[in-house]
Amino acid sequence: VGEDVKPFTPEKTKEIVMSLQQPAIFCNMVGDWPALHWTAKYLSAVLDGQTIQFRLGLKTVDLVPQFETRCSYVKATLEEFLAWSSGQPSCLSGPFSCYEYSKYWAYADYKYIAKIFEDKPEVFQDIRWSDFGFPGRSGKESTLWIGSEGANTPCHLDSYGCNLVLQVQGRKRWHLFPPGDTSCLYPTRIPYEESSVFSKVNIANPDLKRFPKFRNATAHVVTLSPGQVLLVPRHWWHYVESIDPITVSINSWIELDADHEARIEEAITRMLVCAIKSAENPSDGDLWLNPTEVEATSHEINLQYLNKAVTAYFKCQKASVSEQACSSS
């Protein structure tokens, strides 16, 4: 087999992505993607002094998850981040000066590529999800993650879609749990973030006294290396940690028909969280909303979300019913 022959055609890959109920790693699918050169150093040159927000957490492991509401945040350039993570003395001043590299990790996570490179749209073409059967999907519909060793995302599931993750630099360890383990992972909606259900368990150091059912959960642990693409199927829980000094990954969420129903659940959840929160002491708000949620929205707006979700769901139902009618007739 020639070096440049991919193991699956785009059509076959899409079929696997849309139907597989288990996580899978695709190898030899992205060898010709320019995005494989997106090291932190390369991106630092492309971004040329543009600042991005980093989330900082402690490397010491607690019994409770280090939720994003408990982290510190700094705005910095990738150049400053690289200097800090390589222990350069120039970091005694600057955004990372209060955070000792041996004690903290930093994570520029969940950065919409369309937003950070809006004035450089040519870079969108470096990412070619068309090879996975999604023509027209590029960096514009993708998200960038840049972390230092120890950087992690608390264990959660995504309410919508399935997830394709390309590893570019360094390795990341993924702890994946099937949807059937949900009750063993003690789900919570606080901190609230639309489309994320968090686990109360710190996967890296579980408190089995408080969360005894976690013993019954089965972790599928994989180490994702550069050039590999991980498929995270719908509603699989995941805890992700960077295990190399610098990691870069790119992901894209693939919409699924089942999302229409999930959007209704999410719209109702949003309405309840905002209603309860507005009855609480307003100063507690910071612990309720994940930093990715901008603010608590009004009852009026929440009703509009719910309305849209229900309308889209019924449209989709009608469409599939008429399709079935056509095929049966």
Helix content: 25-40%
Distance between the termini: 45 Å
Which value, in Å, is the CA radius of gyration? 21 Å
What is the CATH level 1 assignment of the largest domain? Mainly Beta
- Detail the poorly predicted runs: none
Describe the structure.
The protein is 26% helix and 27% strand. A hairpin with a 2-residue loop joins strand 9 (187-193) and strand 10. By secondary structure, the protein is an alpha+beta fold. The strands form 2 sheets. It has an 8-stranded antiparallel β-sheet. Helix 5 (259-279) runs antiparallel to helix 7. It is globular and about 70 Å long. The chain is built from 7 helices and 14 strands.
Quick structural summary:
The chain is α+β, with helices and mostly antiparallel strands. The protein has seven helices and 14 strands. The model has no long low-confidence stretch (mean pLDDT 92).
List keywords for this structure.
329 residues, alpha+beta, Jelly Rolls, 2 domains, 8-stranded antiparallel β-sheet, 14 strands, 26% helix
Give the secondary structure arrangement, pairings included.
Elements: H1 10-19, E1 24-26, H2 40-47, E2 51-58, E3 72-77, H3 78-85, E4 104-112, H4 113-116, E5 143-148, E6 152-158, E7 162-169, E8 172-177, E9 187-193, E10 196-199, E11 220-224, E12 229-232, E13 237-242, E14 246-254, H5 259-279, H6 285-288, H7 299-328
Antiparallel strand pairs: 1-12, 2-3, 2-4, 4-5, 5-14, 6-10, 6-13, 7-12, 7-14, 8-11, 8-13, 9-10
Domain JmjC: 105-269
Keywords: Cytoplasm
Protein name: HSPB1-associated protein 1
